[in-house]
Amino acid sequence: MIVTPELRPAQIGRASGDFYTIATLGSHSALQILKGAHDEGFRTLAITNRKTERLYRSFPFVDEVIAIAEYKDFMGLVPELEKRKLIIVPHGSFVAYLSLEEHKKMRIPYFGNKAVLDWEASRELQRQWLTRAGLTVPRQFKTGAEIDRPVIVKLYGALGGKGYMFVRDSKDFEERAGLLTRNKHILQEYIIGVPLYIHYFYSPLTGRLEIMSMDRRYETNVDSLGRIPAAAQENLDIEPSYVVVGNQPVSLRESMLAEAYQMGENVVRVSKEICGAKGLFGAFSIETIITPDAQFYVMEISARIVAGTNLFIDGSPYSYLYYTEPMSTGRRIAREIKNALLSNSLDVVLDDSSVV
Ligand code: AMP
Ligand code: AMP
Question: To which H or E segment does residue 153 belong?
Fold first, then answer.
């Protein structure tokens, strides 16, 4: 469906701010989402815990704060929120603190398609999705004995790289990975290259895919190992770890941009074949490592706003090419909801379970 909404200032207040509140959990990319919602004329609600309550209250664009004891208690608040005219914008903390079942049980209008969550949450299904879209994924090994090159042992879930282990070969795996592999895990070929996280936005209203921004993660301690020469590391017994603590901006060599764009188009196209007609829409990110032969290896897809977009609350070099105003991914989401309201097509941007 292609809709080109006419935006007139008088309508904007009426269609968005007066009627809907944009709500999210106070963590991850909440500040960006709520600032963007405010800039587009919505009321904003942050659901915080006792520790973060004061922080979120300190920002003038946060109209309302509801504090709960812990984020995992969020479901207790849902009946109350369901009675209000709210739209939830999910981010990584929803995935980290709520189960898949809880996500689906919730009937609050929800920006995005929850059917995508099944394909994202299972590493096997995600791999099928990416492969079907023609993306190159790292090799995977079923057992330790099969390992014929360095691998990364990855646990399930959005844990920010926590608990991952670099393993040199199958002997190394036998010796060290025992405890870790009691949890659900995969053994993935370790790709040596530079990481690049590409942030996209796909508009179901206009059918346009936009590259919003890009980042690389700042991970401790793997990003500091190069500061100690290999010879000096030899007897130090240092294990690389991949715990994310922040993000750095990147702009991609322009001759590689067309391929990055096409990867985004391909995952959107395939999502419409596998996750119902709506497929993947809104913000998403493809996590890649690029090798010296300029090959993008895709490690993962995140089907919603990622925290790397926090670098670009004021817009990015890419978003500026589409919008000559500061356009964060958070604001882009609010703009899409506003355009949907103005063109009477809110159902197009909400999960089917929550269409009002
Ligand atoms: P948090 O609420 O900070 O625990 O975030 C929830 C999840 O989002 C974490 O487990 C991480 O996987 C991910 N995450 C949070 N912040 C970042 C970041 N700056 N860069 C990448 N991923 C992040
Ligand atoms: P992920 O949970 O997939 O986002 O991975 C977290 C971090 O682990 C990435 O940012 C990389 O630094 C590292 N990593 C994940 N998969 C691989 C891989 N196949 N090869 C090399 N490094 C990886």
Answer: strand 151-155
What is the spatial distance between Cα 320 and Cα 88, in angstroms, rounded to a whole number?
Answer: 26
Rounded (10°) angle between helices 123-132 and 257-274 = 120
Interval 24-59: pLDDT, tens: 999 999 999 999 999 999 999 999 999 999 999 999
139 CA to centre of own chain = 23
Q: Which ligand is nearest to the CA of 194?
A: 2
Q: Are 349 and 203 in contact (CB under 8 A)?
A: no
Ligand 1, atom 15, lies closest to the CA of: 28
- pLDDT tens figures, 145-186: 999 999 999 887 646 677 788 999 999 888 887 777 777 888
* Ligand 1 site residues, Cβ closer than 6 angstroms: 27-28, 92-93, 96, 158-160, 217, 244, 246-247, 307-308
Nearest to 61 by CA among 18, 82, 32, 96: 32
Query: Can you tell me the distance from the alpha carbon of 308 to that of 216, in angstroms, rounded to the nearest whole number?
Result: 8
Q: In this structure, what token pair is assigned to residue 118?
A: 């099944």
Which ligand lies nearest to the CA atom of residue 92 in the structure? 1
Q: Pick the atom of ligand 1 nearest to 245's CA.
A: 19
Q: pLDDT tens for residues 242-272? A: 889 999 999 999 999 999 999 999 999 999 9
Q: Which ligand 1 atom lies nearest to the CA of residue 158? A: 12
For residue 174, what pLDDT is reported? 87
Q: Is 164 in the pocket of ligand 2 (CB under 6 A)?
A: yes
Q: Tokens representing 9?
A: 């200032």
Residue 6 neighbours by CB under 8 Å, 6+ apart: 342
DSSP 27: S
Ligand 1 pocket test, pick from 28, 91, 95 with the greatest ligand atom count within 8 Å of Cβ, gives: 28
